[in-house]
Design goal:
The complex is a heterotrimer of chains A (154), B (595) and C (394). In chain A, 49% of the residues lie in helices and 12% in strands. By secondary structure, chain A is an alpha+beta fold. Chain A has two domains: 60 residues, no CATH class; 81 residues, Glutaredoxin. The chains are: A alpha+beta (154), B alpha/beta (595), C alpha/beta (394). Chains in contact: A-B, A-C, B-C.
């Protein structure tokens, strides 16, 4: 908790404390902690002199600003039309099988979270997924297994 | 600027530039339905029921958000407009728990009215309610939030932000999950909510309602063992009529007393009595603080002193400016002074067992429900006020009892604790507590009436969000000679967003008032969260006029001249800020977190 | 009635002659009014999908009086099937940066902001490097212009210009009422030019080669070239620069897999064109081209006969239901009703005729929704349901 307070303070110092700095600060926390806890939102509200609800309302609008506890690696599989046509379901099954979690869940070791997301902008190389900010395209079940195995070692 | 010409439904109108289509149409006597629009609030343009056709454009425009332009041609009732509006109402209904007969707002719901107007007889669209995990928050003693009734017009969110500056409510999530929420969907009881009820007052449907205690009060009334006492706040008498067929701004004090007697209350008394008492205590407290500051140069004395009648304001300062709690007058609100006296002074005088007394209050306020529920409000040895009903709840009881309110004769309050003054009545309007205090304090200090025509202190009246007044004290009585030449700097703020302005200035040491009146609600109690719906700037003006008319009609207009006040000090309390007062009439405050 | 306009490839956007410094300094010497006229006479229209004349937009902003103005590059490319902006920012970022600064020169502002979608965060560091280099050059030629990147966080609606500005101001990305328009009151209430990445890149082309070169490409009302993001059932998915005005049948001849059943033009918010209409459909802005002329932000998704058009619509509607900002009634509730409605028809819970009620509903959404998202749901819905009604029912 103490760490979060410091992180938020640093971010506020870096970006500023006006309302238009809210998103960069929220993003900064998510980048470090992968999600926005109640505590971090309260810290942000305090730094920016906003109500906690204002921060919550803004954060929950954006699908990349998770407000539930996430694993170290957040996997976002694109579910929009082209990826859907090109085998998204097989990709999802492969991941679920490897990690033993469903969509919206986090592995017990808090290493991976699995989510679906809307169009990632890689329709010509479908199916695609993001792991944190890294993009992986033209996925096949084999390729996914390789990628995840590498991450498991991290 | 030159007026512009526009055509609405074939008729040409001259319109002030800058007006919206909605305003122009209303000026022209053309009604356009609205839901998210509210005169108190900024334009949202999100419900879309106010759409109109601008000839030449394929898409319709939200009339509330579209400014008039020269030579614009508007159709407010074309087939396209009507079909679209009907569709939008159907869409809202499909997402809405439309079990109207079981809704508290049945009969006073803007969505219901529109559905009736557009004769939505069947529902083609699929009912979405079963697919939603709607929840009801009932944990607040003041407000119930039922998401299944919400139409997402965001009036409550804008109210909480723009009028109150609290932002306890927000819009959260997006798409089909979008909803009105608090921080992490906590109960209103667990967040910065001040219980002011302005969201209730601005909600078009039953999504935000007061927690009602009607059945509990009926039960008490019917219990022969119980002696049920009711007190009525100043603003109720200028609002209640609106719920019962009268025009806004009607004074119905006598009928209200009649109705309360008919309902079966054993004693119908007046919060105005303790409003007068508040002036005695708070006025003395102010003078004491001034003396400590000016004569004793006591560094610990907290000035400016802030009023403490408004429980919404109290909770607000507890959450947001806890370091300033010392500036609050220690006086309880008139409601709670009354409660503490009912089960002591009144019980003794009437030779009643306080245990058998049920103390009910009728308030223009939802925050009073929370206030009466505070753990410290047990100074009589019992819960001082058992049930708080809003003006609206009282109207419901009157209707339930089959009372034809219009035909009621005027009656007078019972005694004791039923006598009051014009100074007490104006507690219901913003600036009223200040004016009443000045009337008494000035006279106490100088031996003369306040130097204003007919003792109407006009500078403190009005609807400006923050107002200032300076009263110069000259030739005081000897005991108060230290005040000679002192300019008493007063300020008035109503609506918490204005309170915030004054507090932030105070924090930045940009003001140096002696005395500040704070009211949580716009217009003061007359615009309270428990008052009849709708409340808007015009209605508040009318209620304020009624308040001041009521004041002028009273034959005693200064708190210290109230004979019952004189008597209670003689018989019971001793003197203002005396030991008994201290125990029964004063309180302390709780530091709370903003987050 | 084909438009008889053959597919013409072009190569302007990605042709990189590394001459941006020269073009920039040369352009900054020119008269502002002249530049606006140049842009107006090119007839360039916005490439994000809405097609507003770019020259007029810049002109309006240049005429606005304010102490502060902004140029925003809209890189919140979220329309399903579009991925060209990412490629532009990756391969020719300097063209975009130069165009932003030229716009700043014309309208009188020294601040440019790129709103980059969160999904493209991996681009950020390279782009920052480019900005640094760009700003260095600006300093060298004593031209005061700086550019920042503002990151989005996963919200399709933020591609809508006013939602994007709300988002930049730290709010929920909810579209504003219009008027006022951004050229008068945009980011922070200041006059703002907001252009799509590709639009900016085209202005660079225009300032480099002159408006005539651009104007001579394409067809009437749809001048110049456009990047197309081609995906779906195609042997050659990717990004292609083509002259506007081609017929869809020519497009399918080039990109189809021989079994093309339908093409989605303009992404989920665009239209689905069935095979029987390929001939009569041209790709360009609304104009007097014979037949149907469909605008597009560049998304072209091809579907062959193995694809279910019901699944397609289901996928789009789920997308819209989630990505609607939720503030206005027709869009928020309409999207839910459409999705649940087609499911009900498919399952038999509602009769086939219910589809007509849903079509009426999309009409209301088109008329009354607050922004382009809700208004354009009708496009895909009606074009799919009307052309593939059987698939919706059985």
């Amino acid at each position: 908790m103490h760490q979060t307070t410091e992180l938020v303070h640093e971010l506020a110092e870096k970006y500023g404390r006006s309302r238009e700095n809210l998103l960069p600060i929220l993003q900064g926390v998510v980048e470090k902690e992968r999600y926005l806890s109640e505590g971090s939102m309260i810290n942000i509200a305090r730094e920016l002199d906003l109500s906690a609800a204002e921060v919550y309302g803004t954060a929950t609008f954006y699908s990349f600003l998770e407000y539930k506890k996430m694993g170290q690696f957040v996997i976002r599989v694109c579910k929009t039309i082209t990826c859907s046509m090109k085998g998204k379901n097989q990709i999802l099954l492969t991941i679920q099988d490897m990690l033993k979690i469903g969509v919206g869940e986090t592995t017990q070791d808090k290493k991976f979270s699995l989510l679906e997301t809307n169009c990632l902008g890689w329709c010509h190389k479908a199916p695609a997924m993001l792991i944190n900010d890294e993009i992986y395209t033209e996925l096949t079940p084999e390729k996914v297994r390789e990628i995840l195995s590498d991450y498991m070692k991290k | 600027m030159n007026k512009i010409n526009m055509t609405i439904n074939g008729v040409v109108y001259e319109v002030e530039p800058g007006k919206t289509i909605l305003e122009a149409a209303r000026d022209a006597g053309i009604i356009i339905p609205t839901l998210c629009y509210h005169k108190d609030l900024c334009i949202a343009g999100n419900c879309r029921v106010c759409v109109v056709e601008i000839v030449g454009q394929n898409r319709l425009s939200a009339s509330c958000a579209t400014p008039c332009q020269d030579n614009m041609e508007i159709l407010t009732n074309s087939l396209k407009v009507r079909n679209s509006r009907k569709h939008i109402i159907e869409l809202l209904l499909s997402e809405h728990n439309a079990d109207c007969t079981k809704c508290y707002k049945n009969g006073n719901c803007e969505l219901q009215e529109l559905a009736a107007e557009y004769k939505i007889m069947s529902q083609d669209l699929i009912d979405l309610v079963p697919f939603k995990n709607y929840t009801i928050d009932m944990f607040s003693p003041s407000i119930i939030k039922d998401d299944s009734k919400c139409i997402r017009c965001q009036r409550c969110v804008r109210t909480c932000a723009e009028l109150q500056g609290v932002n306890a409510l927000t819009v959260a999530y997006k798409g089909d999950h979008m909803k009105i929420s608090t921080f992490f969907e906590k109960s209103l009881n667990d967040v910065v909510c001040t219980n002011c009820g302005q969201c209730v007052n601005h909600c078009p449907t039953g999504a935000l309602i007061e927690k009602n205690y009607i059945e509990e009060v009926w039960e008490a009334i019917s219990d022969p063992e119980k002696h049920v006492v009711v007190q009525t706040a100043p603003a109720v008498r200028v609002g209640l009529g609106e719920e019962l067929g009268f025009e806004a701004g009607s004074r119905v004090t006598g009928k209200m007393v009649s109705a309360l007697k008919s309902l079966g209350f054993d004693s119908v008394l007046d919060t105005d009595f303790t409003a007068d008492l508040t002036i005695m205590e708070e006025g003395t407290e102010l003078l004491t603080r001034l003396k400590r500051s000016l004569v004793d140069h006591d560094p610990d004395v907290k000035l400016p002193m802030a009023t403490s009648c408004s429980p919404g304001w109290i909770k607000y300062i507890e959450h947001l400016y806890p370091e300033y709690l010392g500036h609050l007058s220690t006086c309880k609100s008139p409601q709670q002074m009354f409660g503490a006296l009912v089960k002591t002074y009144y019980a003794r005088s009437r030779k009643l067992n306080p245990e058998k007394i049920v103390s009910v209050s009728i308030m223009p306020c939802t925050a009073k429900k929370f206030e009466s529920n505070r753990p410290e409000m047990h100074d009589s040895g019992y819960r001082d006020v058992d049930y708080v009903l809003t003006t609206r709840e009282l109207a419901i009881m009157i209707k339930q009892a089959g009372i034809d309110f219009m035909k009621l004769p005027d009656k007078k309050f019972d005694r004791i604790m039923g006598e009051s003054t014009g100074a007490a009545v104006i507690f219901g309007a913003t600036g009223g507590v200040m004016e009443a205090a000045l009337r008494t304090a000035y006279e106490l200090v100088t031996g003369r009436e306040v130097p204003f025509e007919n003792i109407n202190i006009m500078p403190v009246r009005g609807m400006e969000g923050v107002r200032e007044a300076i009263i110069k004290i000259e030739n005081p009585l000897e005991a108060w000679s230290f005040l000679d030449g002192v300019e008493l700097r007063c300020a008035i703020a109503h609506g918490l967003v204005n309170a915030k302005k004054v507090m932030d200035e105070l924090k930045a040491q940009k003001n140096n008032y002696h005395f500040i009146e704070f009211m949580a609600c716009p217009g003061g109690c007359l615009g309270g969260g428990g008052q009849p719906i709708p409340t808007n700037p015009e209605i508040r003006e009318k209620r304020a006029k009624a308040i001041y008319d009521e004041d002028e009609a009273m034959h005693i207009r200064k708190s210290h001249e109230n004979p019952e006040i004189i008597k209670i000090y003689e018989d019971y309390l001793g003197k203002p800020l005396g030991e008994k007062s201290h125990h029964l009439l004063h309180t302390k405050y709780t530091e709370r977190n903003r987050y | 009635m084909a438009t008889a306009y053959n597919l013409k490839r072009a190569d302007f956007i990605f042709r990189n002659e590394n001459d941006w410094e020269k073009i920039l300094s040369r352009t900054l010497q020119r008269d502002k009014q002249e530049l606006i006229n140049e842009l107006i006479s090119s007839e360039l229209k916005g490439r994000g999908g809405a097609g507003f004349p770019t020259g007029l937009k810049w002109k309006l902003a240049s005429e606005a009086v304010s102490d502060q103005k902004y140029v925003i590059c809209n890189a919140d490319e979220g329309e399903p099937g579009t991925f060209k902006d990412r490629e532009i920012l990756t391969r020719v970022p300097f063209k975009v940066l130069a165009a932003m600064s030229i716009c700043g020169y014309i309208i009188g502002c020294n601040t440019g902001i790129i709103y980059l979608r969160g999904e493209y965060k991996f681009l950020k560091s390279e782009l920052e490097k480019a900005i640094k280099e760009f700003e260095y050059y600006c300093k060298e030629i004593h031209f005061d212009f700086n550019i920042q990147i503002f990151m989005g966080s996963g919200a399709y609606i933020c591609g809508e210009e006013t939602a994007l500005m709300e988002s930049m101001e730290g709010m929920r990305g909810e579209p504003r009422n219009k008027p006022p328009f951004p050229t008068g009151s945009g980011y922070m209430g200041k006059p703002t030019v907001i252009n799509n990445v590709e639009t900016l890149a085209h202005t660079f082309t225009i300032f480099k080669y002159g408006s005539k070169k651009f104007y001579d490409l394409g067809v009437q009302f749809s001048r110049g070239t456009k990047l197309f993001s081609v995906s779906g059932d195609t042997p050659k998915p990717g990004i292609y620069e083509l002259e506007l005005g081609m017929s869809l049948s020519d497009f399918v001849d080039e990109f189809g897999d021989g079994d093309t059943k339908a093409v989605q033009v303009g992404g989920a918010s665009g239209f689905l064109v069935p095979r029987k209409r390929f001939n009569e459909t041209a790709i360009g802005f609304k104009g007097k081209l014979s037949g149907i002329s469909l605008p597009t932000g560049g998304s072209m998704m091809l579907f062959n006969s193995t694809r279910s058009m019901y699944n397609l619509l289901d996928n789009y509607l789920e997308f819209f239901r989630e990505e609607s900002c939720g503030q206005c009634t027709p869009c928020r509730v309409g999207c839910q009703q459409l999705l649940i409605g087609i499911k009900a028809v498919k399952s038999g819970a509602k009769p086939a005729g219910y589809l007509d009620k849903l079509l009426k509903l999309t009409e209301t959404m088109q008329y009354t929704a607050k922004c382009g998202l809700g208004q354009s749901v009708a496009n895909s819905f009606s074009s799919i349901v009307e052309n593939f009604r059987e698939e919706m029912i059985y």
